[in-house]
């Protein structure tokens, strides 16, 4: 296995990267015992020195090699990659909410940026004032979520909202944005942010050189090309197919699809299939390659090969939604001493909290927040990150401090108010979440 240096900021060519290969064999008893020991120790904390030594790189490579054939959870894989992050060093981002992309691009292009340094984010509002708050996790997660939303809308991608492909943008290519976007995605996932969740499954499989990649004509954005492919697909006879191919000979020749000898009607499927592969992959090969090189940041691309189906859930769109049960189980309640008056009020409020989540899950009014809004308010992200939450989210109780909920996104802590009735509790929860300033706003 060839590993890319995770902290390199220079343009890299994966095909020419020279990396030390570590070969392990578990056929002998002694080597098998060694692999088992590595299995039990690979996710223990790995100490990374300020100056990364070749021995630590070899150890990291050895850990990855020993588990390449095992299905490991995405969370465990990313936690292992996160051991490369140096907490004592910082990469700073100054972000204006009115132009997230501009600030992000400046930060990632800065010569001092290192993906293995802790990310420190400072937001400014639309009036130019810096928002108060020390970033120990919350602002960073919110920034990474907003960044993934902006990446999705870049001209580098085309296609349906939930099935996007890379497409060639010459200006973006000259500015090396394909590499930068690949790096942004890798950094987001290792530093506790979300994955893109809009990449086409076909593109995902193509990047990993695995599975089946067979695009559909409905994924083509160019109306003229889509019409050509539809006419070829709808040909009802060999003569009709030959006539259609002749009409679109120039377009098919550019894609290298004019060499097909049409003998039977089923040949139309091969023509369409080959054209689609050229349209989405072959003509964009240089862009896809730079995107892949960006994904090698912090060894994410190599790690994706350990659990392709697991990573696909975070790169590609998924219908799975957050439920009230997921939120309730995610937040651990912190109660006062048993038998105390406070404990009795907290137990009642905990029941209100559980009912509130159920009501929000089945909401019919836009005047109420969604479960994603509650998660955003509490943690800075609207979905559970691939790496999970660190620290684990908690819910505690406000006795006299405030009638509204209070969130500490840096510690993933949600404080909910105590009220005598459920209706008052629900009203103040809705108002507090929907009108929250700073962290938690979309």
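Q: What amino acid sequence fits the structure above?
A:
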């Amino acid at each position: 296995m060839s590993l890319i240096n995770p902290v390199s900021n220079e343009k890299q060519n994966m095909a020419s990267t020279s990396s030390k290969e570590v070969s392990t064999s578990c056929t002998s008893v002694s080597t098998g015992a060694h692999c088992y020991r590595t299995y039990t120790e690979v996710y223990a904390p790995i100490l990374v020195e300020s100056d990364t030594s070749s021995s630590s790189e070899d150890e990291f490579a050895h850990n990855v090699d020993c588990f390449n054939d095992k299905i490991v959870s995405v969370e465990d894989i990313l936690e292992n990659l996160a051991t490369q992050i140096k907490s004592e060093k910082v990469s700073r981002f100054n972000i204006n909410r009115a132009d997230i992309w501009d600030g992000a691009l400046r930060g990632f292009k800065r010569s001092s940026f290192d993906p293995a340094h802790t990310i420190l984010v400072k937001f400014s509002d639309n009036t130019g004032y810096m928002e108060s708050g020390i970033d120990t996790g919350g602002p960073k997660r919110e920034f990474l979520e907003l960044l993934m939303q902006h990446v999705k809308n870049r001209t580098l991608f085309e296609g349906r909202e939930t099935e996007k492909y890379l497409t060639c943008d010459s200006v973006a290519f000259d500015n090396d944005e394909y590499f930068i976007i690949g790096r942004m995605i890798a950094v987001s996932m290792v530093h506790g942010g979300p994955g893109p969740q809009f990449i086409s499954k076909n593109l995902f499989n193509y990047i990993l050189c695995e599975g089946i990649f067979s695009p559909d004509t409905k994924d083509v954005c160019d109306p003229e090309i889509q019409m050509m492919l539809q006419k070829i697909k709808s040909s009802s006879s060999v003569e009709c197919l030959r006539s259609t191919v002749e009409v679109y000979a120039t377009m098919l020749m550019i894609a290298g699809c004019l060499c097909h000898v049409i003998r039977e009607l089923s040949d139309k499927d091969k023509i369409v299939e080959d054209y689609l592969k050229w349209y989405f992959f072959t003509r964009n090969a240089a862009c896809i390659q730079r995107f892949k090189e960006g994904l090698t940041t912090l060894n994410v691309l190599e790690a994706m090969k350990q659990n392709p189906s697991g990573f696909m859930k975070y790169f590609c769109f998924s219908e799975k939604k957050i439920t009230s049960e997921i939120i309730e189980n995610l937040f651990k309640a912190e109660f006062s001493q048993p038998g105390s008056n406070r404990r009795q009020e907290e137990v009642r409020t905990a029941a209100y909290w559980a009912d509130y989540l159920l009501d929000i899950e089945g909401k019919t009014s836009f005047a109420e927040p969604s479960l994603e809004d509650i998660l955003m308010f509490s943690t800075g992200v609207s979905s559970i990150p691939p790496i999970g939450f660190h620290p684990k989210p908690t819910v505690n109780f406000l006795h006299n401090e405030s009638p509204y909920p209070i969130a500490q996104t840096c510690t993933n802590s949600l404080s909910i108010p105590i009220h005598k009735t459920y209706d008052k509790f629900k009203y103040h929860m809705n108002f507090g979440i929907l009108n929250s300033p700073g962290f938690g706003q979309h």
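Q: And what stands out in the fold?
A: The chain is about 45% helix and 10% strand.
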